[in-house]
Every structure is written in structure tokens, then in C-alpha cells.
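Input/output pair, single chain:
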Amino acid sequence: MTSAREQLIDLITSEAVFHGDFTLTSGKQATYYIDLRKLSLDHRAAPLIGQVMLDLIEDIDGVVAVGGLTMGADPIASAIMHQGVAQGKVYDSFVVRKEPKDHGRGRQVEGPDLAGKRVVVVEDTSTTGGSPLQAIEALQKVGAEIAAVAVVVDRQAPAKARIEAAGFEYRYAIGLDDLGLDPQ
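Output:
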């Protein structure tokens, strides 16, 4: 029987890697695009993502919640939360808005109270590390302790170096070599 990680790699390779000319969020040009949202919102892939990411973060002590900058992190955090519950592991999830709300309670971080709590910032795929770093800034303002950044697919770009230079552990589940792709 193939592992959840192997099944996820197969799905990403066959259904979420697009070849052509693309402009990434970073503004950088690329000859392929990994559209992980296509799969993170898919009933076949979401449980696999949850399992693979649980495996990636299970050895980090004291983590009570996972999440990150909306929108890429939302289905990843949800998959981890749901797969965790199925296995008797408790992780809440949270959402970090790009900007604080200008009405209501004016919150930028939605979900459980994270003051003094250990969290893992998640992302579907990361190139520059900008989204996780933006989420970290908002999380630190509410008093959360960042245990690590965990990414489903690492593009072997500046993200890892930037996040580690900022003082945070960076982990990823799947690399470009796993998908048969070269760094760009």
C-alpha cells in the first residue's frame, strides 16, 4: 500500500503541476506553476494533506494550533485539524487576515485565543516566504509563540532561507525533486 505522501505526490504531479509561462506571487517568472489550492480543496487530496502535514509536525512539542495567512493556509490548517481529530490529536486552526478588520472586533487573527500558545504556521507552497512571515508578524502581535513554519510543497526558492534568517524553523513535506521538477 502506498503512503499518504506517495499518494499526494502522485496527485500533485498529475493534477496540480501546470507547464507554461507563469508569473508567481513574488513577481518571478516560471515555466511551471504548482496550483496546490486545486488539490487542497479536493476531497481526495485534503485527507492526504492532513496526514502528510501531521507526520511533518508531530514531533514539535506543545503545539495547540495551526494556520497562516488566508487563503493558501486555510485548507491546509483545516485538513490538519480534521485529520488530527480522526487520530485523537488535538490541533485547533486559525486564520490570519491580510489586514485587520476595520469593523467588529478589528481582529487580524481569527480563531482561538493564541496568547502564550505554541503554533505552527502552515502554507500550501512557498517561494519567497512572504506569506508565512506576514502571518508570523500578526501572530506575534497577539502573543503567539511560533514553533515552526510547515509548507506542503517547497519550491527550493528563498523562502527557507528567509524564514530561517528571521529565526524560525522551516519544514516542508514535498520538494521539487519529489515532483520531478527543477528549481527556477
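The CA atoms of residues 65 and 92 lie 4 Å apart. Strands lie at 17-23, 29-34, 63-69, 92-96, 109-110, 118-126, 145-154, 170-175.
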